[in-house]
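Quiz preparation item.
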């Protein structure tokens, strides 16, 4: 019987339980109250569970009217409406007053993307960012699109004293950042048009592209060469080179970049740095199981020169 005791002991240790003499009550695990143990029904908040049902079904159905959603869930419209209004207050769902339809909102994406960053994108990007920084000698960055801007989610700083630095959580407009322009260049025309209508081309420096025609031309050049260039368009004295990362559906969902002072990231170094950034972005795309969508102008994979 001794081996059974050892198995039980290992189980309790793994579960953060105690086997104190004379005490058969399991000790609480971290992050749970003392009386949580095996009381699933007691510890379930029914209103929260109902809200999750609404959110999950809305995500499956897409844009849906209140009555149709309530009928689908088998709940009263009044109950579903209270749930939706509560979620709307947190930005987790959105209501289109024109179409009278409810949709999953950006708040849900923020929650979901935090999981994706933890389990996939950021984790897999770290060694690639580190290698890119070592190869180029400049700070390497990873960013995604969030609320019409670039959200920087990871960075590996250069060893140089003078360097670019914008910590994870920093946001920058798409039209005034290397990663932003790399992603804009991959947007379908209709989506790009909607973005430009919704987001003014604000000037941050004398070099910011504030005219739509100039930005469109720059995006076309970006597609041709496979990488974007931020030439002091957000911060004077800093230059950035970026390339897109594609998901399993061939959509550009993130970008990699290197940033540094103009004294080091000179125009003559741009082709070399651009090739290195492209190679790193392609490596991360492969690591994520992604690929450039059919018809994309992303350059073929090739080693940097």
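Solution:
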């Amino acid at each position: 019987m001794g081996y059974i005791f050892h198995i039980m002991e290992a189980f309790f240790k793994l579960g953060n339980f105690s086997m104190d003499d004379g005490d058969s009550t399991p000790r609480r695990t971290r992050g749970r109250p003392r009386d949580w143990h095996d009381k699933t029904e007691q510890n379930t908040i029914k209103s929260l569970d109902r809200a999750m049902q609404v959110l999950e079904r809305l995500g499956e159905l897409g844009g849906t009217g209140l009555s149709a959603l309530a009928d689908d869930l088998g709940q009263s419209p009044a109950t579903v409406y209270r749930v939706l209004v509560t979620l709307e207050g947190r930005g987790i769902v959105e209501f289109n007053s024109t179409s009278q339809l409810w949709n999953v909102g950006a708040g849900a994406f923020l929650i979901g993307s935090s999981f994706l960053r933890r389990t996939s994108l950021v984790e897999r990007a770290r060694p690639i960012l580190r290698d890119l920084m070592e190869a180029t000698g400049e700070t390497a960055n990873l960013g995604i699109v969030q609320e019409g801007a670039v959200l920087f989610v990871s960075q590996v700083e250069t060893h140089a004293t003078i360097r670019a630095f914008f910590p994870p959580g920093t946001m920058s407009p798409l039209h005034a950042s290397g990663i932003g322009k790399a992603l804009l260049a991959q947007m379908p025309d209709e989506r790009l048009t909607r973005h430009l209508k919704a987001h003014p081309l604000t000037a941050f420096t004398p070099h910011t592209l504030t005219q739509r025609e100039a930005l469109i031309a720059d995006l076309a050049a970006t597609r041709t060469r496979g990488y974007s260039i931020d030439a002091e368009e957000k911060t004077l004295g800093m230059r950035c080179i970026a390339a897109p990362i594609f998901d399993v559906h061939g959509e550009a969902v993130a970008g990699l970049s290197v940033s540094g002072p103009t004294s080091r990231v000179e125009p003559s170094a741009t082709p070399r740095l651009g090739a290195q950034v492209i190679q790193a972005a392609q490596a991360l795309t492969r690591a994520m199981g992604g690929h450039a969508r059919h018809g994309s102008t992303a350059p073929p994979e090739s080693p940097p020169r």
